[in-house]
Amino acid sequence: MSPWVLRLVVANVAVFLLTATLPETTGLLALVPAAVLLRPWTLVTYMFVHANLMHILLNMLGLYFFGPRMEGRLGGRHFLGLYFLSGIAGAVLTFVLAPHAVVVGASGAVMGVLAGYARFWPEDRIYIWGVLPVSARVMVIGLAVYSIAMGSGLLGGGGGVAHYAHLGGLVAGWLYVLGLERRRGLARGSARKVPWELPGAARARSERWARIRPEELHEVNRAEVERLLARVREEGPRSLTEPERVFLDRMAPP
Fold first, then answer.
1. DSSP 73-127
2. What distance in Å separates the CA atoms of residue 245 and residue 74, rounded to the nearest whole number?
3. Which of 68, 93, 194, 237 would you label with 57, given CA atoms 20 to 30 Å apart?
4. Contact criterion met (CB below 8 Å) for 105 and 161
């Protein structure tokens, strides 16, 4: 896991253990949109509260699978911006459309990360329940349509799920990444098929690569690592394709 993904997972697990041990803390941390002016901290704290073990497990799995690559692309500061803005946007949309709901969970924030992931890698295959393959783009569109249908009651009751929080997170995550792209004046890729990176993320990535010790690697990987590092020194990180960058990321120490 990347540094901030790991910290977020630890924080979520810690709060889950706290609320399981002291159930009365759940009421202090959960979000009730209609009461947000009395408890403004719940706009953030609700993201760390989960209803049960399955709830936190699913959210942390989503963060684990999609978060590290997004953090690597955006850098820690913008990754946290994406995460928390998406979670807060989910709270705001719930305030508008379902003000008396009680909302807990990191789902809105994780949905924002997923939306950003789909913006960068729309054709990546995601296997739902490990069986059904869909592209990241199709998955995000499907989740948005499902959230609208369930939140509005078109497909029955909401089933105790904060569908508007999910929808708000998806929209905010997509817009956040789109805004970063336009601020940089860059598209998702270039003619070289190398996606853009923010300067801080690119610098952190290069520093991680510099810590690779080829002599400690298996000979199967050593020659390729040495070849790629030599190209980085001579031509710069932009000379690498995305698969080559991902390979060096795997070889680099955490």
1. HH-HHHHHHHHHHHHHHHHHHHHHH-TT--B-SSHHHHHHHHHHHHHH-TT-EEE
2. 14
3. 93
4. no
User: What is the model's pTM?
Assistant: 0.74
The pLDDT value given to residue 182: 80
Fold of 3-184: Rhomboid-like fold (1.20.1540)
Q: Is residue 221 classed exposed, middle or buried when 0-12, 13-18 and 19+ CB atoms within 10 A define those classes? A: middle
Residues, the chain? 254
167, 103 contact by CB (below 8 A):
no
Separation between Cα atoms, residue 179 and residue 245, nearest integer Å:
24
Kindly state the tokens that stand for 170. 């998806």
Given pLDDT bands bounded at 50, 70 and 90, which one contains residue 190?
A: very low
In angstroms, rounded to a whole number, what is the distance separating the alpha carbons of residues 57 and 53? 6
pLDDT tens by residue, 159-182: 567 899 999 999 999 999 999 888
Could you tell me the sign of the dihedral formed by the alpha carbons of 235, 236, 241, 245, in that order?
Answer: positive
CA 136, CA 233: separation in Å to the nearest integer?
34
* 219, burial (CB in 10 Å: exposed 0-12, middle 13-18, buried 19+): exposed
Cα separation of 62 and 72, whole Å?
A: 16
Exposed (0-12), middle (13-18) or buried (19+): which is 74, by Cβ within 10 Å? buried
188 DSSP 8-state letter:
S
Does residue 197 have a pLDDT over 60? no
